[in-house]
Fold this sequence. Notes:
alpha+beta, disordered N terminus, 12 helices, Arc Repressor Mutant, subunit A, six-stranded antiparallel β-sheet, 9 strands, three-stranded mixed β-sheet
Amino acid sequence: MQNKQAYFDSQSHLVKLFMERSGVGTPHASPEQVMSDVVERATGKRMYSQGQLLQRFLNVRNIVSVDFALDPGCDGMIEPIGSQFSDGFRMQLKKNVSEVRSRFTLAHEACHTFFYELVPEIKFRLHQTDDLEERLCNFGAAALLIPSASLRKRTKKLPICLDSLEQLAQEYTVSLATMLLRLRALALWKCQLSSWHRTTGGNFVLDRLYGGRRCEWKWQDTSLLEQVWNSGESVFGTNFVYLDNEEGVRRYRPISYNVRRSETGLIALWGGGVRPAALSHPLFEVIRRHH
């Protein structure tokens, strides 16, 4: 992650003040680490259920009401009631969306209150949307919904694969992408998650990539993709992906992967340590019985 000075050179004054006034982190902490720290400070060290954790966070952040509307114009918004943090906030969320999406939006909007609290001279006046603030609120939402202590404990015995990622996402009621990014942020997994759209011509084109810079990666062995598409199985192995840069130079990248079919194409997890769950071998059972 970039350090504070790198962000200050190119990013917003709002985030700079937020970090300086947060009272957490080290001198070289990234904005993401500072946001994670203020979220954990707000929730405390006590273990809560998912519902209790969200309600406690809303209370601590002075959010006095959460209303739902059919068409608010966006997934959610937060509005200060007065001219200072202590006056509280109202939140409005879009109705009839999935629980995963609604919970993440609620957590994201609640994280905006840190900027209102720490940088009131900007936030309580007419101001433009700050892209870095929005990104940090996404990061803070993930930190709130997926507490680091419980996730570290939960992942100790889990293999790195799509089944584990899906299981964790269901347990914490978040999307696969949110869970993958949280695992990467805590350095628990060093993987990327990608989705591949199947075209009418039968080719597979990269749709989305989480956990790295978006590049137009292509699979060297496309027969593998056809195999997974036709069989519907979850496949593990090693392969190469490649991309061609603007100068026409082709760059290859070796990967270990877990790929399976999705509704519109394929979903792939690739990176360090990707493997299926360990299976007991009959020979080991025989040896154990004879000793």
